[in-house]
Design a protein that fits this description.
By secondary structure, this protein is of the alpha/beta class. Helix content is 38%, strand content 14%. β12, α16 (456-462) and β13 form a beta-alpha-beta unit.
């Protein structure tokens, strides 16, 4: 979920600034705040490159240059427009939002005329100033990645920043909120389609073919958007959600019962705050959920214009510890079994063959985020209403969503009950559905942030009745085989290179265990460009290209 993809460096920043273009003529400011309405039409063009210029600038930067063999040399130029539009927040509040419209340009056949749209959702980001149209931002390369992967290869890209980011005055981000997130994607798509004929790139037009993708939290949003559009009778040409927390209830059950994922304090803070704003019932006071050491100011803490490193350094959040390293007491029938689950991660000795273990251990500490009582209450609720794909499910239990009733079983369970009810509501198995369009799920079984088996594996089982060919599942970390074998091999070679670096003097000559831990810790970020190229290949095949 949390995707700390670091930047492209000063050289590319200067080059991109030098290449910026702008609209000529006058843009009209809208008087309507209806959903999907453009605030300014046409939107401002803030970047314009031809294909050779884009390739030269990418090649001049070490980070981007290392990915050029994966992305491929640009076939098209790219014009980037900064789109401002109207949408709503998690509780229906009207808010202005923004995003990027990236249009391929040039005389080559894939770059002009009717082109398919890639609707893209970005991953978790604690930086409130995030703007995917601002490709000069040295702290976030996701915008450059999607420009190089899709727009430079002939796809129109539509990518919202989302409410709570950039110019939005919402004050929070509706994190992993299926209705809001998918609705905002659809609003951005409507705004971009309105804008496109009026841009300086109008030689490129919308073919009507819609492709949906996104990574990490954006993978979740992509799947939610596919579901929403198809449920409304719309047509999706193909979708490729990537490494998303789709089985949300099962994933959080795993985390609360000891498998604490990387970046959990950041993800957990955004999740609790987003649901508190949307539903108003996650807590009465923050200390119902949050350790008093961190409760003050936790609401609206993230995303923030203050860098996350500063927030951690100032002690506003623990860096790693989601839970207390002293096992809380469970006092219900069967408590011994449940207590064992709460300590499961700490009970497994660190082992180079199991690199997740030391990461799990980092999730426990003396200065922790979630109250012990709250964690116990959540665990009891998970044991009372078992998710068929969660850690408490009996062997062979189907990956269904637990049917949590509308009544609270006990006042003492109310806070945890409401969080788990929110997770259940936003779990993408609920209500049961299956995609109508060809779908690729890409991720990796060594991902320490979004667990492949809990999320991608669960959706694969959940959709086991789909006809052959309707669903493609790619484990980027599996033994290379099949149509994506070359890509799997390239990803694994990349990971081997990272391991060699950390074992070398340049990387600090770490022990094998410590070096492996570093490799695992960056795996989630490393998957994004490889899965994105897999999505592009999948889309190209579906389109018959």
């Amino acid at each position: 979920m949390f995707n700390m993809v670091k930047g492209l460096g000063a050289g590319l920043v200067v080059a991109l600034l030098a290449a910026c273009g702008s609209n000529t003529g006058t843009s009209a400011v809208a008087t309507s705040t209806a959903r999907g309405t453009l605030d300014v039409n046409p939107p401002l063009r803030i970047l314009s490159f031809d294909a050779p210029g884009l390739q030269a600038e990418l090649a001049s930067n070490s980070t981007a240059a290392a990915l050029l063999p994966l992305w491929g040399n640009p076939t098209c130029g790219v014009d980037v427009y900064y789109v401002k539009f109207w949408t709503v927040g998690g509780a229906g509040e009207t808010t202005e939002s923004s995003g990027a419209l990236m249009v391929p340009t040039g005389a080559a056949p894939p770059c002009t005329g009717p082109r398919p749209i890639v609707l893209y959702a970005h991953g978790t980001n604690p930086d409130q100033t995030l703007n995917l149209a601002n490709l000069v931002n040295p702290n976030d390369s996701e915008g450059v990645s999607i420009a190089a992967t899709f727009a430079a290869q002939g796809f129109i890209v539509v990518a919202p920043n989302f409410a709570g980011y950039d110019i939005s005055t919402l004050g929070y981000h509706p994190y992993l909120n299926a209705v809001q997130n998918s609705g905002e994607m659809i609003d951005m798509l409507a705004a971009a389609r309105t804008a496109l004929p009026n841009t300086m790139s109008s030689a490129t037009s919308d073919s009507g073919q819609l492709l949906i993708t996104g990574y990490s939290a954006g993978g979740y949003v992509a799947m939610a958007t596919q579901r929403a559009i198809e449920a409304a009778g719309g047509k999706v040409t193909a979708a490729a959600p990537m490494s998303g927390p789709y089985a949300l209830e099962a994933l959080l059950d795993s985390v609360f019962l000891g498998a604490v994922d990387a970046y959990s304090t950041v993800n957990g803070t955004m999740l609790i705050d987003g649901y508190q704003h949307a539903y108003g019932n996650i807590y009465t006071t923050a200390t119902d959920v949050i350790n008093p050491q961190y409760a003050t100011g936790i609401g609206n803490l993230l995303p923030s214009a203050t860098p996350i490193d500063t927030i951690l350094a100032e002690g506003l959040l623990p860096e790693f510890a989601l839970f207390d390293n002293v096992t809380p007491t469970v006092t219900i029938p069967g408590s011994a079994v449940l207590s064992a689950e709460l300590t499961a991660a700490l009970a497994v000795p660190s082992n180079p063959a199991n690199p997740f273990t030391p990461l799990f251990d980092l999730g426990f500490g003396a200065s922790y985020l979630i109250n012990n009582d709250y964690r116990v209450s959540y665990a009891i609720n998970a044991a009372s209403f078992i998710d068929g794909a969660g850690p408490l499910a009996p062997t062979g239990s189907p990956p269904t969503v637990a049917a949590i009733p509308a009544m609270i079983p006990s006042p003492t369970l109310a806070p945890a009950f409401y969080l788990r009810q929110a997770l259940n509501t936003n779990d993408l198995r609920n209500p049961p559905w299956a995609p109508h369009s060809p779908t690729l799920l890409c991720g990796g079984d060594s991902d320490p942030v979004v667990y492949f088996s809990v999320d991608t594996g669960t959706m694969q089982k959940f959709w086991s009745a789909l006809p052959a060919g309707a669903l493609t599942v790619l484990d980027i970390n599996a033994t290379p085989a099949g149509p994506f074998a070359e890509l799997q091999g390239a990803f694994q070679a990349h990971q081997a290179g990272v391991l060699a670096f950390y074992e070398s003097a340049a990387g600090g000559s770490l022990s094998p265990t410590a070096a492996e831990l570093q490799v695992v810790a960056q795996t989630h970020q490393a998957e994004q460009p490889f899965c994105s190229v897999a999505a592009r290949s999948f889309f190209t095949e579906i389109l018959g290209g």
